[in-house]
Amino acid sequence: MATVTHNATSDAAGQGFQKVAIAVVHGIGGGDAAYESRRESQPEFVRSLQKSLIERLSQLGVSRADYHQRFVMEPVYWSPILEDRQQGLLTRMQQQSPMNWDTLRKFMVSFISDAIAYQISPHHADARGQNSYQAIHRFCAQTLSRLATAAGPRAPLCMIGHSLGSIVSYNYLLDLQAQFSGNTNTESFLRPSTQHKISEAPIERGETLSLYYTLGSPLALWTLRDRDGGQPIQFPVAQLANHYPALANVAEWVNIYDADDVIGYPLRQVNANFARAVKADLAVNAGSILDNWTPLSHNGYWSNPETVDRIARSLLKVSQTINGR
């Protein structure tokens, strides 16, 4: 297992700020050819969210320069794992027998095949670490490692997951808690191919999770696997108090959904356990004027004013709490 090589005293170099680390996990439609070809330094969903956050925080008195001193954002960009396979399958099907509703069909193939492919495989299937569940979780581990370097090993963590990305982030946090935090309500499915990418840094083990936002999440449907909805992740995780006692009253898990989004659902109604863990189910009107009344609103959360405002205010509160300014 890797060891910590970060210097906590230089994590927020120059300005004396302990940065807040933001990990963003995409869902449907997260692929970005410009990012993959390195024409852009970040995928479009991160560019859109970060632009919106900077604009909103500037209205709250945080300059662009101050934003970059307080926060650092990194994507969990897992699209390439499944994207080529999906496109190849669609192409073969269309060549054999043309099908109607191309746009909707691509949307459904993307979501359903992602959900099917992202399943926990038998232990022996990870002999070379090739199954999709482990491959996607290795991207999660790599992102938290980058954030540990950029923000520090004890940086407060904000996790944002959209669509299937909310399931990815949720399962990864469950795995971390079972592996490192003594959560006995679940078992860890982390395999050696993923574990060796996780250092002893608290942020990489999920110990500093302070803010969690699930956007357009089908997690409520995932809970049907358990008869009574089961136990959610521990939130806030117990170790947070060891690192940042003052964040006990600031930490929040907020689930954000649009009533027109047939993939996103409220969470607090799942059972009493989720009602305790999830601070709020926030209903918003995502998307543009052309699609905010349709299921296509599912991809409109990144720049939605209500979503951005909630995240921006909470990020600023966490930053001000840990830095005293």
Write out key terms for the chains shown:
11% strand; 12 helices; 41% helix; disordered N terminus; 6 strands; globular; alpha/beta; 6-stranded parallel beta sheet; 325 residues
What general outline do the C-alpha atoms trace? globular
Arithmetic mean pLDDT: 86
**Sheet with the most strands: spatial strand order:** 2-1-3-4-5-6
Largest sheet: 6 strands, parallel
Rg: 19 Å
Query: Which structural class best describes the helix and strand composition?
Result: alpha/beta
Oligomer: single chain
Number of helices: 12
Please tally the β strands and state the result: 6
- Low-pLDDT parts are 1-14, 124-129
C-alpha termini separation: 36 Å
Share of helix, binned: 40-55%
Compressed to H and E, one letter per element, the order equals EHHHEHHHEHHEHHEHEH
The proportion of residues in beta strands is 5-15%
Structure, explained:
The protein is of the alpha/beta class. Helix content is 41%, strand content 11%. It contains 12 helices and 6 strands. The protein has a 6-stranded parallel β-sheet, with helices on both faces. The longest helix is centred in the middle third of the chain and has 20 residues. The radius of gyration is 19 Å and the shape is globular. The two termini are 36 Å apart.
